[in-house]
Q: What sequence folds into this?
């Protein structure tokens, strides 16, 4: 049973009295089991949001996977979503481009906006939305097509090129921005699946950016990659931030620290804490965040 808690985090000078504040000795069983409702600590809003989520709840059948989450993704920011396995990171990120629509039994509630427009409005076409809010998955998933066609596909179905020359320009520049062009320029006609895992993931990123999205969602994009391929993707994320906004789910706190400006910590479907990445890792407010970042849970 979920129990409402009306804790205010006026913790300065009051740390030892606040049951959830970092530094306290013990957590009750209910707190550990997520049976308490927490008020998110930290700054959930952004001064310049590209995505704003208000009071989001997600259910799979009768099971609630996301509980009253409010969070902004800022323009040109990278925000990391972290938390123990099963806490709802993938479920949450999938709300942002309506990927949960494709999951039978999933129900999303709340107000979610892209640049001020509600993305769950009846008139919104999820296919067009997903061009504006692209997604890169854990396992690289190139289409069973050539390298060239993998990147050209979206541009073609969205009518972004009027000629072969324009399509070439989109494909080559997307591959270039994804840091892959030099490695594949003589392999354009080979199957996308013939590339290495790290190259395939950059191909998927090229495919995503080819349709000029505003936001890129990444769900553990490096977890199937070796450290060298991972470093390439992380460098790329930093570059992509100039033009896009990125929300990335990661299990690697080092990665979150390297690539993101803000970090959101989820626990049992709730957003416990969000703030500047270095603050969340070095000086978290909430005891649950502290436990996770210091390796006591998760
Ligand atoms: N398709 C689904 N049908 C039913 N329940 C689901 C589905 N996907 C996820 N869930 C449940 O929702 C909760 C959140 O899962 P989710 O995959 O979002 O967690 P996560 O934080 O991404 O975990 P991980 O780090 O392991 O990827 C879990 O209890 C999970 O079992
Ligand atoms: Mg997940």
A:
């Amino acid at each position: 049973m979920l129990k409402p808690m009306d804790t205010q985090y006026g913790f300065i000078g009051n740390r030892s009295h606040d049951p959830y504040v970092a530094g306290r000795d013990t957590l009750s069983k209910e707190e550990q089991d997520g049976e308490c409702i927490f008020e998110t600590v930290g700054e959930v809003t952004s001064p310049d949001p590209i995505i704003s989520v208000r009071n989001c709840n997600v259910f799979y059948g009768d099971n609630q996977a996301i509980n009253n989450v409010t969070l902004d993704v800022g323009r040109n920011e990278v925000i990391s979503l972290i938390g123990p396995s099963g806490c709802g990171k993938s479920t949450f990120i999938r709300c942002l481009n309506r990927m949960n629509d494709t999951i039978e039994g999933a129900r999303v509630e709340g107000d979610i906006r892209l640049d001020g427009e509600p993305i769950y409005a009846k008139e919104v076409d999820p296919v067009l939305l997903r061009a504006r809010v692209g997604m890169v998955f854990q396992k690289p998933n190139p289409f069973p097509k050539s390298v060239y066609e993998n990147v050209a596909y979206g541009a073609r179905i969205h009518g972004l090129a009027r000629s072969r020359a324009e399509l070439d320009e989109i494909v080559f520049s997307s591959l270039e921005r994804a840091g892959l062009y030099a490695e594949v320029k003589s392999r354009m006609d080979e199957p996308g699946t013939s590339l290495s895992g790290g190259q395939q993931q950059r191909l998927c990123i090229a495919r995503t950016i080819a349709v000029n999205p505003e936001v890129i969602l990444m769900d553990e994009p490096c977890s199937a990659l070796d450290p060298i391929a991972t470093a390439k993707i992380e460098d790329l994320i930093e570059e992509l931030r100039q033009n896009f906004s990125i929300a990335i789910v990661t299990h690697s706190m080092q990665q979150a620290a390297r690539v993101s400006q803000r970090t959101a910590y989820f626990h049992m479907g709730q957003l416990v804490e969000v703030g500047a990445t270095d603050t969340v890792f070095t000086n978290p407010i909430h005891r649950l965040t502290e436990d996770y970042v210091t390796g006591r849970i998760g």
Residues 164-177 form the longest helix (14 residues). Confidence is low (pLDDT under 50) at residues 1-18. The domain at 15-140+213-293 is CATH 3.40.50.300 (Rossmann fold).
